[in-house]
Every structure is written in C-alpha cells, then in structure tokens.
Design brief:
Elements lengths: L32 H23 L6 H12 L8 H7 L5 H22 L2 H5 L3 H28 L6 H13 L3 H10 L6 H27 L6 H31 L9 H21 L3 H11 L6 H28 L7 H29 L4 H11 L4 H12 L5 H16 L1 H8 L24 E7 L5 H11 L8 E10 L6 H11 L13 H12 L3 E9 L4 H11 L4 E5 L2 E3 L5 E3 L2 H13 L3 E6 L16 E7 L3 H13 L5 E10 L9 H19 L4 E8 L2 H9 L6 E5 L18 H8 L8 E6 L7 H20 L1
Parallel strand pairs: 1-2, 1-4, 2-3, 4-7, 8-9, 8-11, 9-10, 11-12
Antiparallel strand pairs: 5-6, 7-12
Keywords: Antiport, Ion transport, Membrane, Potassium, Potassium transport, Transmembrane, Transmembrane helix, Transport
GO molecular function, one term: antiporter activity
GO biological process, one term: potassium ion transport
C-alpha cells in the first residue's frame, strides 16, 4: 500500500491563458498572456524612445538607447525589484516574449538582407577589401586569445573550439546598419573615410554571418564532430537551393512588378511566406532561423520597386514594435551585478581593450600601408569598431546554446555598448573634414556686371510635386545668351530617418559622392528621369543631386553643395503646399526651419518658391511657355536682385514682364540711404534701357501713401502667373495679423496669403550679403574692383 507521506513530485505551473475575463470578474489582466504582452511592448517601446530622445544631443544611434533600455528593465536595474520582475516579466511569460522578439528579428534580418547589395560588395576596391580583412583577422585572433583567459576563469566547462570561434566572431564584427547611420549623422558618407568604411563594413557583415554560421554549427548537445559537418553541408545545400529555386521565383515576381504600378498583394504574401519557410528550414538544419530570413533578403532583386515596397510594408511594424522586444529579451538575460570583484572587472577591461586594440591597430596599420593619412586611418579604426544588433544576436545565440554564462554574457554586452557609445564622440574629436572645400568664387548673386557669365542655380525639392514648377521656372530662366547659359543642380532633399530603409538612401548618397550626382546612374529614379528628359530638350545643363540627412542638419548639405558648385541662387520650396480648395497646408515645422537656416547661412542669394502650379501640373515645352511675371519694386538690395532675375527671364520670348515701381510718399517706410538710392536708380536705368528693345516688358509706376494703396496696386495684377519679390522690401506690414512666415517678408507674406490669389506663384528672393562673412566680403570686393578695372581698361 502506498504511503501518503511520499515526497510529491514538483508541479509545473499551468500555462498562461491568452485573454482574461476582465477586471470586473476579479481577474488580473497581467496574469494572462495577451494583456501582459501588450504591457511589455508598451513599456519597452516607451523606455527605448525616451532614452533615444535623451541621447539625441550626444548624437548616439538608437540602438544604444535600445540596449540600455533592455538592460534597465532586466535584473541589472528595475529587475532587482522582484515584485516588478515577477509581475511584468514573469518567467512563464518569457517564452511568448522571446517568440515575438524572434519573429521581429526574423523580418528585421530579412530587411537587412534587402538593404545589402552583393553587387556593391563585388565592386569593392582592393584597399577597402584588404582593410576589411585586417579589421576581421586581428580582432578574431585576439578574440581567441581572450577566450583562453575567460575559459580558465569565469567560463569554465564549455567546449574549447566553439568558445574560441564565438569569442573571435564577437570581437571582429562591425555593425553595418549602425555604422551607416553614424556616418550619415556626422556627414562623413561622402568623404574618403566614409566610402572606405561603408565598403569594408559591407564585407565584414557578410563574413560575420559566415563565421556565425560556423560557430552555430559547432554548438549543440551532441559533441560528435560528424554532426557539425552534416550541419555545415546541409547549410551549404540550403544556400544552393535558395539560389537555384527561390531566386528565380523572387526574380519573376520582381519582373512582374513594373515601375509605376502597384505590387500585387499576392507577391508580398508569397515573399513573406518564403521568409518563414526558409527560417524553418535553417532552424531544422541546426544553424539558426535568422539565416534563412537573411538569405531570402539578399536574393530579392534590388532593381525596380519590388524591394522598396517590401521594405515599406513591414519596416515600421518590425523596427518600431517587435525589434525593441529583442533588446528587452537580451536585457533580461544581462545581469551586470554578476560582474563583481577585481577579477571580473579586470576581464571586462581586457575584453574592451582587445576589441578596440584589434580593430583599430589592424585597420590603422593596413591603412597606412595604403598611404591613408594617420588621422583618417585612426578615424576609420574607431568607425569599424562599431557594434550593434548583429553583435547582440551572436551573444544571445551563445547564451542560448550554453556557450556563454551569465557573467561572460554581461561582460560581452557591456563591451558592445561601450565600443559603440564611444564611436561618435571620438570621431567628432579626431576627424573634422573641411566642409567649406569649394574654391572662392565671385558670382554669388544674380545681379552682376558681366551678364555673359554662366548662371548657376541649386534648385531643391522634396517630392515629385515640386518638379513641374521647377522645370517650368528653369525654362523661363534660361535666357538667350550663348555664353551665359543656365546650369541647374536639382537637389532632392531626403530625410535620413531611423528606419532600416534609410540604409538604401545611404547607399544612394555614397554612390553619388559629395556632389551627390553621377552621370552613370543605374537606378531609374522618376525624378531624375524628369530632369534628364528636360535637359535633352533644352540648352539648360541639369545635374540631378541627392542630399540625405536629418532635417535638423540638412541645411549644411545645401549650403556646402551651393558653395562647391559655385551657385548664384539657392531655390527652396516653401514649407506649405496649396490644397485643392486654395488653402495652404504645412509640410511640418522642420521644413520651415530648414528654409530659415539656409537664409541665415547661405553662401549666395536664396529664393523661396511658393508653388501654386506655375504652368500647371506638367512640364510645358519651350514653344508653349506663356507666363506673365510681375516684379514689385520698393527699393533695396533684395528688390534689386528680384529685378535682375526678372530681366533675365524677360529674354525668353514667352515671358511678359511687368515692372511695378512704387513711389512711396509719407512716413510709411524709413528713408533709404543715398548709396542705396544710387544703386536702385542704376538698375532701374538698366531696366529702362532693356525695355526699349523688348516689347514684352512693361513698366508701371504707382504713387502710394498707405498700405491700402500698395494692396490695391498688387491686387490689380493678381492674374499674373509669377511674382518676383524681394524678401526685405522697405515697406510696412501688409497683413492685419502677425505672420508665422517671416522668411517671406512683408510683401511675400501678403502675396502668399489666400486673400490675395490662389493661382499666382511667388518667388521671394534674398540677395547675398558679403558683409556677413569678412573673408568672403574681402574676396567679393576684390573681384568687383578687378572687374571694374578691367571694364574701364577696355
């Protein structure tokens, strides 16, 4: 007969139910899987975003905030409170959390594969390839050396070979996506350092995955070397199957998704299903499910809209919600408290030193052989020492496969965090490339003595919406002079975000170079095609460009490019666009600030274009151009610049120009200086001389005594297609209420208001003032004197 005193077997806790019956049924929602997961996601995402905001002044990549957020939620900080840990992250909920985290990780690695273009890696130059190999070999060797120390102290009992490989891989990895964002943030993408770093990091990324596959194949509960051989052979067979079976399927779907047509939902569904199938196969083989997703991403054709649509469909959900769960999962495994005592902290210092020493010394020494300057070589070494998501993936696989214990895992996580954190401040301290690199030049204004010189315009746009008006404005501005022709640099302004697709834009900027353009373009960008088509049909030289940066700093790209291209005018789109009902809708305050910063720091004249459909929504051919342009003239340097631009436009046979000169009596404006009046009279005299030989030019003069007279005079011309106005016209405010657009000036604000017109476009121009820069003032005045002397001699 069995005794009742026998020791009872331990009872496993019942699995969590999915949903609760509600608080009114006296059930705690946090005892159920779905409500608890929702709370975990909200907590993780909120904490990571708050930390990212706090670290923004330090210009740290978001991955730093996500790693720190995960550590804070774990047993190192908040998790030290057992009540919090058992309530929010109980052990029985971790399986669900890890599952969602790994699903997000699967699709994120698919996105990384989509961003990685193997053709670019194959084109990697010898210098970048050798530097990449040096940046892998020495850290890998030091990683193996470090593994001997760790294995004899804090990581005893683990397999020798597999631990050596894992440590070597951990120290030799470079985080390609994180590096790309750091380079973009510091505006180093188009420098020699940036180009080498991107090429070398792309090679590192692929090599790291190959080494990680080897390390994973060597792990497992079965110690037989034959098992590892079978895993590697099956992994190789999977890659061959993917190349010869999956790649043709993906290529077929990409071919059937032409530019300009929506990608079929079926193709999206099939591709995402193939990601899951490939992940299942690689997990079954024993490598890791992530490899299957990464391989499928690499095999998706990069040409055409197919890859872009895939990224657009999934990146926000994956990067915004699911991926932070992986960092939380990693943080819950990280217990910094296990690093205690002199030995443990000494090992942490050793690991960090070897990681930095291996990367930096290996890369600097090889770079010096290729005659890279020491400062640039040192910068390259620190940049290539960047860790990130792939590093955490390696460490988590090692933790799950029992290769790393709690203490060694915490040491390696802190190493990854430290090496990435120091990258930005150190690079900013040791490497400061000259941003002004352009040669000094004279023609920084439209108004000039020599009218036969080339007019260069940097025309910026945000989207296809701005292109027809820009092209029609270019056509109207091209003039008839044979020597003084028009050269336009059409710059597409693209915001660099934290999305994974930003890496694609980084690739584009890197391929374009600092001038941001390339004659041999492989991508058939619709915007580029529009400008190139116009160039073929006209005598205007058009060079498409791309500026990719955060909106808070993109004005630096605009000003630097204008200086290097020796532009006389920067054209900026107004931060508001017109809706169908005629009202103006803002694109955002960030775009507003971009225009204000360029006005403050522009190296030449600046114009802001309020687009109300100049010529309609399509490009107008030269023979059909028929615009009425009005130049209101109050006096001052900005009005003179506007008149100079109008006089150039008047050379086009399809332009009718009206010059409206205001003679103001009374005290409604301050009196101009004698010097300003002389300059005003000089350009008016030039205009009168031009009008005598051009019947399409009309001159009107209005005597006004109040702002009502000014408004009445302007309204009489409200049917005009385009107004050219000076930003700082010496007049009084024409609006009853204060404006939120001081960059347009008093006249521009009124013309842009809905009470004036809904059909007239406005170009507000600010003339370049060399007195803002002493060096440029001296150079400008010297050029003017030389020019005057030459003309006198002639």
């Amino acid at each position: 007969m069995a005794t009742n005193n026998a020791t009872a077997a331990p009872v496993c806790p019942a699995p969590m139910k999915v949903t609760s019956n509600g608080a009114f049924q006296k059930e705690d929602p946090l005892d159920f899987a779905l409500p608890l997961l929702i709370v975990q996601i909200i907590l993780v995402v909120t904490l990571s975003r708050v930390l990212a905001f706090l670290l923004r002044p330090l210009r740290q990549p978001r991955v730093i905030a996500e790693i720190i957020g995960g550590i804070l939620l774990g047993p190192s900080a908040l998790g030290r409170n057992k009540e919090f840990l058992n309530k929010i992250f109980p052990k029985r909920s971790l399986t669900v959390l890890d599952t969602f985290a790994n699903i997000g990780l699967l699709f994120f690695l698919f996105l990384v594969g989509l961003e990685l273009d193997l053709r670019a890696i194959r084109r990697t130059g010898k210098k970048a390839l050798v530097i990449s190999i040096a940046g892998i070999a020495l850290p890998f060797a030091l990683g193996i050396g470090t593994s001997f120390v760790l294995r004899s102290t804090v990581n005893k009992g683990v397999g020798e070979l597999v631990f050596h490989v894992f440590m070597g891989v951990s120290l030799s990895i470079t985080a390609f996506p994180v590096l790309a964002r750091i380079l973009a943030e510091l505006k180093l993408l188009t420098t020699d350092v940036g180009r080498i770093a991107m090429s070398a990091a792309a090679v590192d990324d692929v090599v790291a995955w190959v080494l990680l596959a080897l390390a994973v194949a060597l792990t497992g509960s079965n110690n037989s070397p034959l098992i590892s051989v079978w895993v590697l052979l099956c992994g190789a067979a999977f890659i061959l199957m993917a190349i010869f079976v999956l790649k043709p399927i993906l290529a077929m779907m990409a071919r059937r998704s032409p530019e300009g047509e929506p990608v079929k939902e079926l193709y999206i569904c099939i591709t995402l299903s193939l990601v899951l199938v490939a992940s299942f196969v690689t997990d079954t083989i024993g490598i890791h499910s992530l490899f299957g997703a990464f391989v499928v991403g690499i095999l998706v054709p990069k040409d055409g809209p197919f890859a872009g649509v895939l990224i657009e469909k999934i990146e926000d959900l994956v990067s915004g919600l699911f991926l932070p769960l992986f960092f939380a999962s990693s943080g819950l495994k990280t217990n910094v408290a296990t690093i205690k005592g002199g030995q443990s902290w000494g090992l942490l210092v050793l690991v960090i030193f070897n990681a930095c020493f291996g990367k930096i010394v290996g890369i600097v020494s090889v770079s010096m052989i290729f005659k890279v300057p020491f400062r640039e070589a040192l910068t390259l070494g620190f940049l290539m020492n960047t860790k990130g998501l792939v590093e955490l993936i390696v460490l988590n696989i090692g933790k799950d496969r029992k290769v790393l214990n709690d203490q060694s895992f915490a040491i390696m996580v802190l190493m990854a965090l430290f090496t990435t954190f120091i990258t930005t401040p150190i690079v900013m301290a040791i490497y400061k490339p000259a941003r002004k690199g352009g040669k000094p030049y004279k023609h920084r204004r439209i108004q000039r003595k020599d009218l036969d010189t080339e007019l260069r315009i940097l025309a910026c746009f945000h989207s296809t919406r701005n292109i027809p008006t820009l092209i029609n404005l270019m056509e109207s501005s091209r003039g008839i002079r044979k020597r003084g022709h028009l050269c336009v640099y059409a710059m597409h302004l693209m915001e660099l975000s934290e999305r994974s697709s930003a890496i694609s834009m980084v690739h584009k900027a890197r391929k374009n170079g600092l001038p941001f353009w390339n004659k041999k373009r492989e991508d058939q960008d619709r915007m580029v095609i529009a400008f190139e088509a116009y160039q073929q049909l006209s005598s205007v030289t058009v060079r498409p460009m791309t500026a990719i940066s955060a909106l808070s700093t993109i004005h630096e790209d605009i000003c630097t490019s204008a200086d290097r291209k020796q532009a006389a005018l920067i054209l900026l789109p107004f931060h508001k666009h017109q809706r169908l009902d005629g009202s103006m809708e803002s694109l955002g305050h960030s775009f507003h600030l971009v225009n204000q910063r360029v006005l403050q720091r522009g190296p030449c004249s600046v114009g802001i274009l309020v687009d109300r459909g100049l010529g309609g929504t399509t490009q107008v051919v030269a023979s059909e151009v028929s615009y009425w342009v009005v130049v209101p003239f109050f006096g001052g340097q900005d009005d003179r610049e506007s008149l100079a631009y109008g006089m150039r436009m008047a050379e086009h046979p399809g332009i009718k120009l009206t010059f409206l000169k205001f003679s103001i009596t009374g005290d409604i404006i301050a009196e101009a200086t004698a010097d300003e009046l002389d300059k005003d009279n000089e350009i008016v005299t030039e205009f009168v001389s031009l009008s005598k030989s051009n019947e399409s030019i009309k001159r009107e003069e209005r005597k006004v005594e109040s702002k009502e007279d000014i408004i009445g005079a302007l309204k009489s011309l409200s049917k005009a297609n385009l107004f050219l106005v000076g930003r700082n016209s010496p007049t009084m405010p024409l609006m009853e209420t204060s404006t939120d657009c001081p960059e347009l000036g008093y006249v521009g604000c009124y013309l842009a208001s809905s009470e004036f017109s809904s059909t007239s476009s406005i170009l507000v121009i600010q003339q370049y003032d060399p007195s803002k820069c002493i060096v440029e003032q001296a150079q400008y005045e010297t050029s003017e004197v030389a020019d005057s002397t030459l003309q006198s001699a002639v």
